[in-house]
Amino acid sequence: MKYRMPLLVGAALLAGAASLPAQAVSSASSAPHTVSVTKGQGKKACSWGVVCLYKNHKLNKGANAAILLTNHSLSRLGKFGFNDRATSVCNHTTRPVRLYEHDGYKGSSETVRPSECKNVRTSFNDRASSVRLGTGPESAR
């Protein structure tokens, strides 16, 4: 009898933990905010879960050039030496991303859909000063 009570309590605790909502478990495993600038080219230089801004067109085709990688919004790309330098972009996230002409998510913008890699439009070339993840027409409610 002495040993049955702790076993029953332990089983009840395990059953309760198994019924936790998925949100509670997944929020604890959120990735930390990261930003880095590296050199490379092509889609493979941009890992899943990040947005990559490339210095040259076609994802730095033909040259290992600067790439800014981030997994969160940045209100000032100049802080990372990438103000007015983005010519192409790869969005390897599940959320839309919007590039803005000015710091603080202001001015004209360009939206990049989830899983999309592209050159920015000619009129926006080398004009991005901030980037916001999770915005754009696709996320409007």
From TrEMBL:
InterPro entries referenced in this protein's UniProt entry, alphabetically: G_crystallin-like
Keywords: Signal
Signal peptide feature range: 1-24
Gene3D superfamilies to which the protein is assigned, alphabetical: Crystallins (2.60.20.10)
Top-rank taxon, per record: Bacteria
Membrane is among the record's keywords: no
Pfam families tied to this protein: Inhibitor_I36 (PF03995)
Coiled coil: none
Keyword Cell cycle: no
Protein name listed in UniProt: Peptidase inhibitor family I36 protein
